[in-house]
Design brief:
Helix content is 65%, strand content 2%. With 322 residues, it is an all-alpha fold. Keywords: Cell membrane, Membrane, Transmembrane, Transmembrane helix, Transport.
Length: 322
């Protein structure tokens, strides 16, 4: 005689397996979700999408990048073309939006609005290129020091300590003072020469932590070579703190370029720079503050946007801050 109880139990289990999940309310399913676990970058992007600060800074930076790439879209005036009929006594005409006299004119009769627009290119170019250079140099040296250790770590760490002993702005001034003509690429090289040390230290610490993980041990046991372990396993899992530091530092490099240009040791004419315009505007700030406020305001807005983006990325990549 067949076991009816066992058959009923088996049938019941089969029905439960194929039955739809229970619904507690209209449109609401109470069963567990079957979402796949997100990676570090997927989880960070999910977190960033819900941060207003990320979207505000991203929109500002996209606008600044468009201005830097295509300044002719925003003004048709030559920023170097001066007309002493205007000179700096011509005050801003706020009713003439996107016109040459919107921000007024400087002491040489040049449109401040056009110079602010074209000055975006030099500042953004310096900030992005210096950040890329220091991330490449510091990231590579930090990765080598953290992964190999021993005498390689000792040599690289002592070099980093020597560069840390040099004041950043003072050292950059000394380097730039050796050049008679200071163009954009000269300022980039000078800032990158002394700015890679922080990235190297951050990358070294991250690699030391990542190389002790089980997946690195497993890859080494399976016969993976050192380059493959470094670039396929260690670097992707150690680069997040470096990206955060680099994003925040980008705004600092833009400020450094403006400071050097303000002091007369950075970019020089005919290059258009916010720092140069701030330096010239500071001489007549009591009678014509608009010559200083507009380039300084654009500089502050740019640095603020990069710092906001860096803070948002840091909060998204660091689980301790959530």
């Amino acid at each position: 005689m067949p076991d009816v109880t066992k058959a009923q139990t088996t049938d019941s289990a089969t029905v439960d397996a194929v039955a739809p999940p229970a619904v507690d309310a209209p449109g609401k399913v109470s069963a567990q979700k079957s979402d796949k676990p997100r990676s570090l970058w997927g989880d960070a992007w999910y977190d960033l999408r819900h941060r207003p600060m990320f979207w505000i800074s991203s929109v500002l930076l996209v606008l600044l990048l468009v201005i830097a790439a295509f300044p002719g879209m925003f003004t048709s005036v030559d920023p170097r073309d001066g007309d002493l009929v205007h000179h700096y006594l011509s005050k801003p005409e706020l009713g003439h939006v996107f016109q040459p006299d919107w921000f007024g004119y400087d002491q040489q009769g040049r449109s401040i609005y056009a110079r602010v627009i074209y000055g975006t290119r030099a500042s953004i170019l310096v900030g992005v290129c210096v950040t890329a250079a220091v991330t490449l140099i510091g990231g590579l040296l930090g990765m080598l020091a953290g992964y190999f250790g021993g005498w390689i770590d000792s040599v690289i760490s002592r070099i980093v300590d020597i560069f840390f002993g040099l004041p950043f702005l003072l050292g950059t001034m000394v380097v730039l003072n050796a050049f008679t003509e200071r163009k954009v690429y000269v300022v980039i090289l000078a800032l990158a020469f002394l700015g890679w040390t922080s990235i190297a230290r951050v990358m070294r610490s991250s690699v030391i932590t990542a190389k002790q993980a089980d997946y690195v041990t497993a890859a080494r046991a399976l016969g993976a070579g050192t380059p493959r372990i470094l670039f396929r396993h260690v670097m992707p899992n150690a680069v997040a703190p470096t990206i955060v530091v680099a994003t925040i530092a980008l705004g600092g490099y833009i400020s450094a370029e403006a400071t050097l240009s303000f002091l007369g040791l950075g970019l020089s004419d005919p290059t258009i720079s916010w720092g140069i315009d701030i330096s010239e505007g500071s001489k007549v700030i009591r009678d014509n503050p608009h010559t200083l406020l507009f380039p300084a305001g654009m500089l502050s807005l740019t640095v603020f946007a990069f710092i906001m983006l860096g803070d948002a990325v840091r909060d998204a990549l660091d689980p301790k801050l959530r």
